[in-house]
Amino acid sequence: MKADRTVRIASGQGFWGDWLEAPVRQVQGGEIDYLVLDYLAEVTMSILQKQRSRDPAMGYARDFVTMIERILPDIADRGVRVISNAGGVNPRACAEAVRRAADAAGVGDRVRIALVVGDDLLPRLDELLAGGEPFTNMDTGRPLSDAREHVRAANAYLGMRPVVEALEAGANIVITGRVTDTGLTLGPLVHEFGWSHDDWDRIAAGTVAGHILECGAQSSGGNLLRDWRKVKRLEDVGFPIVEATADGAFTVTKHPGTGGVVNVASVTEQLVYEMGDPTMYITPDGVADFTSIRLDQTGRDRVRVSGITGGPRTDKLKVSVAWFYGYKAIGSLVYAWPEALDKAKAADKILRKRLKALGLEFEQVLTEYVGVNATHGRLAGDPDPDLAEVMLRIGVRARERAPVERFTREIAPLVLTGPPSVTGFAGGRPQVEEIVAYWPALVDRTLIEPFVTVEMV
């Protein structure tokens, strides 16, 4: 164990679509050892799978390749190692694209790219089902056999183990599929400090560090609820950096001179994000007890995190299944004052009556009045004010495409055949979209981990 070493791990992306300048600024703005970039959420996996179904060469976060082209020379010169789950549902294609970019940039001989595979269960799904794994939906209790014919993708949530293996093989860019957000940070800590994989307190500490970094600037002033007006220079926000030591304690900070803020409030808000049971934050690598966390403000933009305890990993891995559910479309119209809300409500009734008269059947028709109740409902008894403008947003969902297609043609006529003062229809007719739904399940980890491998590209 390298007891006197401080490892600096910087967050560069909190989701697919995050600020593309952030990773560049993290690499060029000061000393860091690792850059971790988290691109995946459940809905992201569904989007990527839809892309791969249209083009087998797609299915990964293409923004990652565009971004890393800009910093490949810096990565090579500064010795920064990059870890990312940007591979999505097609990590091989992503790794090959980065290899081409490195060769084109003239640094191919100084960049070793590792590819993590084995999270994709689709080729093995029927075998696993036949072997007794039901992949029961954690929300509904249904077995996956009910929807097997509609399954588009199935990916197990892997932990830090293949990341550690890739780093030990000498990789300075590690590209994975569905590796957990926390595993991206825990991996380099285990690699650097030689932590045992069953040192549960340190595994929990690295997991918490990963959880703090996983949403990018959400822990350094972005999206901050408390005292948000006091957060300065968000246009120049500094993404968070963890400075970790071998004992499991670490400090959350950011590059000097950047905007945003790192304080106990910003770190706390990120800690409670998607936390669930605070005594049992479960990951593939172990369980962290968030009630044991101690936060101390030790300086400007410096929060020390210590005292973390944890417990053994479970015998299951989570699986994200994407399956074809049907079709949807969403349209909107804006109604102006006076009586904007009444106009929007009247338009909704007119549209629903027309859809019924056409004999169209939908699984769901959902109406929201943006500016009134789309974010939260009104308090009981609160009268509707005479708002300056209200957006009518209405969506439909059906198993078949035809009724949804017809719905998209019934929005525009309201401009001249409904209540007055319509605006905001410049976007044109709504588009019919396929619904790729999310099916969360569990699987015996012993059936998955032997198939997880690391390859050099």
Write the layout of secondary structure elements.
Blueprint: E1 7-13, H1 21-28, E2 34-37, H2 42-54, H3 62-78, E3 81-84, H4 91-104, E4 113-117, H5 125-130, E5 151-156, H6 161-168, E6 173-175, H7 181-193, H8 200-213, E7 241-244, E8 250-253, H9 264-271, E9 281-283, E10 286-289, E11 294-299, E12 302-306, E13 309-311, E14 316-336, H10 340-357, E15 364-370, E16 389-398, H11 401-408, H12 414-417, E17 422-423, E18 433-444, E19 453-456
Parallel strand pairs: 1-2, 2-3, 3-6, 4-6
Antiparallel strand pairs: 1-7, 4-19, 5-14, 7-8, 8-12, 9-10, 10-13, 11-12, 14-16, 14-17, 14-18, 15-16
Characterise this structure:
The protein has 457 residues and is of the alpha+beta class. The chain folds into two domains: 7-119 and 157-314, no CATH class; 324-438, 2-Layer Sandwich (Alpha-Beta Plaits). 29% of the residues lie in helices and 25% in strands. A ten-stranded mixed sheet has the order 11-12-8-7-1-2-3-6-4-19, with helices on both faces. Helix 1 links the parallel strand 1 (7-13) and strand 2. Helix 1 packs parallel to helix 3, helix 6 (161-168) packs across helix 7 (181-193) and helix 7 (181-193) crosses helix 8 (200-213).
